[in-house]
Every structure is written in structure tokens, then in C-alpha cells.
Amino acid sequence: MNALRPILYGLLAIIVFTLWNDWQHRPIPHPPKAAPTTVIPSLPPAQVKRPIPKAPMAPRPKVRPQAARAVRVRTNVLIATLSTRGADPVRLVLRRYFAKHSHRKRLYPLLVPKGPAFFVNDNGLLARHAVPNQDTLYTIAKTHYRLRPGKNHLRLRFHWASQGLSVTKTYVFTRGSYVVGVRYHVTNLGPRPRQIYLYSQFLHGPPPKTPFYHSAPVYVGGAIYTPAHKYHQVPFPHLAKHPLSVHATGGWVAVSQHYFLGAALPPATTPAIFYSLGLPGPRYVLGYKTAHALTVAPHASGTLTTRLFLGPKKPSILRKVAPGLPLTVDYGWLTVLAKPLYWFLARIDHLTGNWGVAIILLTVLIKLIFYPLSAASFKSMAKMRKLQPRMAALKERHGSDRGALQQAMMELYRQEKMNPLGGCLPMIVQIPVFIALYWVLLDSVSLRDAPFILWIHNLAAPDPYFVLPILMGASMMLQQLLNPAMMDPTQRKIMMAMPVIFTVFFLFFPAGLVLYWVVNNLLSILQQWWVMARMEKA
User: Fold this and answer.
1) In the chain, N or C terminus with fewer CB closer than 10 Å?
2) pLDDT tens digits, one per residue of 174-190
3) What distance in Å separates the CA atoms of residue 91 and residue 43, rounded to the nearest whole number?
4) How many domains are contained in the chain?
């Protein structure tokens, strides 16, 4: 039974990952349908790429033929390009993160206006009369802005005026923050009151296909949080087949990538309607509009606000932005174990300044905590090894009579006061912790571009020279040699092939995950050798 441990671990891991995948893609519960006056309307036939949500409102304003200008913004954490057409961000890169396989030469692009990584944000106003939306041409004083040293905020003011209505759209960028504030100041110069709504929406292309060699599926799709329904992932195909129309006060909608997030955050006290839409391409729309209009009296002004989060899925950052936003860091159904593991990992990194060293020290800490269970397992294995000659004699004596052999084996276990499951059960108890740590390492943005030593410059990417996977395979082989030999030749061949199979899989795992398994295996070998040596000496 002890020699079958790797097979049991593999089967259990497959079951766990299957359950996790099913849990991840559960649909959001559908609330009652909205009344006709507040239903998020369908896509205008002529508008395919950038839909404008319609309520009981007039057609969008005519677009002037002038060409739009690009407005560039630079802070200490991001670089954004906004267009005067709609005054929306069309491109945004994160200064502290780098594109995959970029070798630190190209910053990570979160918002991309075209191509397979298409991901943009639109926000604007809706009304029965002409108001600015994503197709409207704004004006602005200059085209280059930079957050100067000593300044904590940077404001960009776009202007639009037509038919007695003046709108100033202001973006607020803050030092060290991935939250971008958006403020509409509306002035009514006409003789009648104006009723105006605000909308903010994300458009995303299809999620990237997961390569066959990828260690695990990573969620890329929509997410929604409301005080009533809490947090739910809403996969892109579900958004298209079952469009959302969720009324809530407070909450947010977001598009989640592997390590990064784009979220639209209405004010906590503003009633909103969260909606989704599927477009040809395919492209997917997820956003919200205010449920109640802002009424601006003649010769008066009013304000509508929203916020965008455009940055990494780092728990210490997300928890300061909005309730429920840290839930986008998905540790699966073992979150209750994964969160404290991440907390310890982050604390160790804060002390050591190296995530690779933090992984090693956390692995050592886990091994120390589970030392009694591991020691019990290794003692059972040592007893099993001692009984190997007597078990071989029993097999030779009973030949092909499996019933008699099993009865004789159980009698031998009883005489020696030994539990044949003693080597398996203590290790199975540890499996949830190991899987939780696996997901922590897989979904932690802090490991992106985090160097370890020498040739390992990114713990979130595979080892470029495959040194760690080979060490992992060698450690597994050494563990096989320390385990009791299996009597069945076929099973013995399968177990000897396992290190080779696992090495091939681990070639494509992130270096941080492989480092964890190498350290865990080496510590297990050392512990097993120590326990067996003490037992033989005794």
C-alpha cells in the first residue's frame, strides 16, 4: 500500500482539479427580470465593435468628421493613452510588470485596442437628448501629461458642449494607485431640465487557449459582486448565452485575467444595473449603468462619478479598493487554507526580499508542522521494508492463491501490530495543504518577474534551462529507491517510470512551483532517511 502512494496522490489530484473546475464555472443566479423601463437594451444594429447601452433614450449624437488625438499620461505605476474620441483609455501598460517572455524589455499591456488581446473600457453618458459617449469628440488643452515629483494627483480635463449642455470629463490619476477616477461635471445652459445616466463597460476578446502542456487552467472571464449575491465568476460564453441584468446598490463588475484585472466600480450608494452582451468576433461586453437619472435643472450643474481599477490582482492592493475585490484572486475551494499560506509567504518575502527564498522557507515550515504525520508514515514504511523477505516467502508459498495470500498477509500485519495503511493516511491528510499552496503559487502576481538566483529571473515562468525539473525528477527517483520494493513486476515498472513522466510535465510548470516540489522532495528524503536510520539503529 505504501508503494502505491504516488498513484493515490495522482488520482486524488485529478478529482480535486475536476471539482475545482466545475465550481469555478458555476453560473450566477438570475434575479427577477427588470421592468421594461430599466432593462439594459440590446445592441444597435449598426454598432458592432463598441456598443452603446440604450435605455428609454434618444439616438447617439452625430459624430464630427475630425480626427481624434491621442493623449498620453504617465504616472509612477502606469502609462495610459486616451483618445479624444470618447475620452476613453484605449491603451494602458503597467510599469512594474512585464509582458510574457519579454525579458524585461516590454511592459505588460493591460488595455489593448486591437488584436487577439483586445481589451478596452468605454464610459459615457446617456439621455434623451445629445450627450457625449464613446463616439463623441472631446477637446483637451494638451496631449502629454506626467505626474510630477512631489505631486500625488494628476487630472486630465476633457471638454464637450452642444445644444445648451456643457460637459467636463475629468480623469484623476493617483500616485502609486491603479484606481482611476472618472468625473462628469454637467452644466445645463438650456431652459429645460436634463435627465442623464452614466455607463461604464469593458469589452474583451475571447480568452486565450490554454496549451496542452499548461500546468492548470487559468480563469479568464467576467466577474460580478453585489451585496445580495456576493461574488460570482461569469465565464464569457455564459455572458453571451444568458445576458445579465442585475439591479444592485453597491458592488462592481470586472474582467479577470490570469494576474491582472479591469473593474468598473460605481459609487457604493448609487443604484446600478449590471449587464452583459455577446458580440460577433467573438467579443464580450460587461458593464453597468446608473439605474436612476441625474436631473440637472436649467442653469444649474450636476456631477456623476465612477471609478476604474486597472492593475494587478494583488490582495494587499485589492482590499483597499472595494469590498469583495480580493475574491478575484482565485484559490479555488481551498481558499480557507490558501489565504493564510499566502499571508505567511508574503511576510517571509518582506523579511528576505526574495520570493524564491520565501518559497523554500515556507516549505520548510510546512514540513516541520507535519513532521509527526510524516514520521509516522516513514516508520510504517520502514516496518514494511523490514517485512519484505517474509512477504516474499508468503507469496512463494501460496503461489496463485490470492485469497490465501491476502489472509496470510493480514495475519502477518496483525502479529507485527502494523497497519498497512499507516504509510498512506498521514500523507493524504497533507494533500489539501499542498494543493492550496500550489494554487497560491500559480495565481500570485508577486511571482511574475520575481528573480530567484542565477538563471531564474522569473518564478512565474518555466525554468529556461530545465534544471529544476530535472532535479525534481532525480529527487523522485531517489524517493523510489528509499521506498519498499514492490513485489509485482508490472507495478514496479510503473513506479520507476513515474519520475520520468512527472519530469516531462514539470518542464512547463512555473519555476516557483517546481522549486516548491524540489524542496519538498529533498526534505522528505532527508526526513525519511533520518527516521529509517534511527529505527535500524534501535
Assistant:
1) C
2) 999 999 999 999 999 98
3) 24
4) 2
